């Protein structure tokens, strides 16, 4: 006769609890399953595609791992619209009836609690873009009454705040990025992925790779690109100093050639009136414009407050000055100590 081990009361209670849980969990969410959630999302985002929940859906459609689990699940995405943002929309009826007040459903597929609402996004985008014209403002044309446009408001708002995180309109973005699902997503400028990081406009000295350098397309995103950018700025600064020296030497030459012949002699007549050499005036004006273009470009680079870019310009100016000083001294000696009107100002 075979003997079977006896089950203790405690073990029996545990098995019963597991069986009950296994039976109840599917029942709790089966009335609003993934298929229903997907259909609801399609309806909701067709009616109002600018809602933040719809942009999260777009991210998840492109990459199912774009958000931490379970926030890419359709039920969680429906919750982003129906629980937090627009609960009275027609497409929310099934979710509100079966999942909004269901503890099991909310435990398995929670809505992203820190996600800003559509109204918050619209108001903050309108406020930011009224204060200053920033890259991205043209994508969302919102009225003072915060009507929703076709733009992806969450993406535009995140880009604006990533560029200038200290703005008074950006605390909701900071809150979203400090918790799931924002943390680690491409909506938050955490510096973890330079290939998608948004250049920031930080008004104090800082380090980092990703910066706008003079042009919208000049953004170093790798160490090689950053070092090559530093080298380019160093060489540009050297060329600026050498060009400035050539400008000074030209002034010396023009000043010497403008002296009237026989100026060492004496005359009792009235001094001859010098004629304006318009060729010289035009040449000096053009050189001044080129000089100012160089100078202001270098000034704008230093105003990125990026430490590496800043010192690339400073060191380049120093090296360029050391290379060009002998040229000026040689020209002075060749012209008998004649000096023009050198202007060593950097910018204007």
UniProtKB/TrEMBL annotation:
Matches recorded under PANTHER family: SOLUTE CARRIER FAMILY 31 COPPER TRANSPORTERS
Membrane-spanning residues: 226-250, 294-319
Biological classification of the source: Eukaryota, Fungi, Fungi incertae sedis, Chytridiomycota, Chytridiomycota incertae sedis
The protein, known as: Copper transport protein
Cellular component annotations (GO), alphabetically ordered: membrane
Organism listed in the record: Synchytrium endobioticum
Primary location: membrane
Membrane topology label: Multi-pass membrane protein
Molecular function GO labels: copper ion transmembrane transporter activity
InterPro entries: Cop_transporter
N-terminal signal peptide: 1-31
Family as reported in the entry's similarity comment: Belongs to the copper transporter (Ctr) (TC 1.A.56) family. SLC31A subfamily.
């Amino acid at each position: 006769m075979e003997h079977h081990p006896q089950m203790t009361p405690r073990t029996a209670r545990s098995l019963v609890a597991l069986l009950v849980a296994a039976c109840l969990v599917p029942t709790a969410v089966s009335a609003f399953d993934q298929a229903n959630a997907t259909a609801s999302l399609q309806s909701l985002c067709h009616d109002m595609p600018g809602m933040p929940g719809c942009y999260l859906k777009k991210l998840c459609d492109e990459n199912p791992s774009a958000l931490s689990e379970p926030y890419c699940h359709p039920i969680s995405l429906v919750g982003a619209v129906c629980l937090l943002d627009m609960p009275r929309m027609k497409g929310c009826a099934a979710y509100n009836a079966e999942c909004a007040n269901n503890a099991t459903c909310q435990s398995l597929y929670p809505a992203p609690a820190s996600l800003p609402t559509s109204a918050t996004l619209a108001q903050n985008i309108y406020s930011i873009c009224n204060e200053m014209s920033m890259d991205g403002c043209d994508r969302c044309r919102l009225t003072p009454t915060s009507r929703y446009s076709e733009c992806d408001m969450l993406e535009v708002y995140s880009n604006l705040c990533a560029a200038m995180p200290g703005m008074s309109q950006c605390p909701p973005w900071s809150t979203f990025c400090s918790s799931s699902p924002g943390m680690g997503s491409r909506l938050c400028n955490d510096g973890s992925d330079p290939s998608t990081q948004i250049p920031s406009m930080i008004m104090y000295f800082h380090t980092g790779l990703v910066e706008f350098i003079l042009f919208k397309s000049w953004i170093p995103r790798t160490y090689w690109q950053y070092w090559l950018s530093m080298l380019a700025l160093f060489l540009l600064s050297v060329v600026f100093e050498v060009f400035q020296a050539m400008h000074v030497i030209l002034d010396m030459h023009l000043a010497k050639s403008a002296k009237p012949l026989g100026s060492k002699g004496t005359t009792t007549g009235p001094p001859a009136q010098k004629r304006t050499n318009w060729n010289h005036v035009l040449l000096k004006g053009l050189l001044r414009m080129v000089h100012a273009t160089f100078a202001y470009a270098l000034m704008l680079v230093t105003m990125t407050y990026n430490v590496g870019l800043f010192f690339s310009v400073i060191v380049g100016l120093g090296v360029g000055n050391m290379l060009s000083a002998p040229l000026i001294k040689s020209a002075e000696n060749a012209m008998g100590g004649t000096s023009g009107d050198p202007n060593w100002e950097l910018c204007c």
